[in-house]
Amino acid sequence: MTDLSATPLPAPVPLDARDGLYLRRAIALADIARARGNRPFGALAALPDGTVLDEAWNANHETGDCTAHAETSLIRKLSPRFTREELARATLYSSGEPCVMCAGAIFWSNIGRVVYGIDAVRLRVFRGERADQVDAELSCRDVFAASPNPIECIGPALVEEASASHVGAWKV
């Protein structure tokens, strides 16, 4: 397992009841992904009035599509049905910190707010040092900071709950 003792872990942030509800649903979607043989990640999008636009989970294993991450799959479902203006008002809830690819998809979709569970630093502990499980070590915040439109980013949050989906999931 990767030793992160020299790496500072991001401090978890508190959430209000609504954000907690939707993030817990994203974590439940991660558990569905895992039960289906995929990596444990889930995501959903909701509007400020509480309307859930859609949800998705990681489907890499079952589809054979290396880009079938939860967030990217969700955006593929949303983009044909909602305008960029509608998506700008949405919050994307993700069980884990969006990777570089997913952060780019969030940018292109115009989604204006992201709330995530376990952060990429803690995920690296679960992934270990296997070459087939490495990621680009760039925070979603770095991608969002390059956006000309503001993307609010909240996380990590509910870290213990979000971490539970990953226990034992990253082994051979």
Main sheet attributes: strand count, strand direction, barrel closure: 5 strands, mixed
Helix fraction, binned, reads 25-40%
Number of strands: 5
What is the terminal separation in angstroms? Answer: 13 Å
Strand content: 15-25%
What is the radius of gyration? 15 Å
Mean pLDDT: 91
Q: Strand-and-helix sequence, N→C?
A: HEEHHHEHEHHEH
Query: pLDDT below 50 for ≥5 consecutive residues: which ranges?
Result: none
Give the helix/strand class: alpha/beta
> How would you sum up the global shape?
globular
Record the strand order, biggest sheet: 2-1-3-4-5
State the helix count. 8
Can you walk through the features of this model?
The protein has helices at 17-35, 60-63, 70-78, 84-88, 100-109, 120-127, 140-145, 159-164; strands at residues 42-46, 52-57, 91-96, 113-118, 152-154. The protein is an alpha/beta fold and 172 residues long. The chain has a 5-stranded mixed β-sheet, with helices on both faces. α3 runs parallel beside α5. The mean pLDDT is 91.
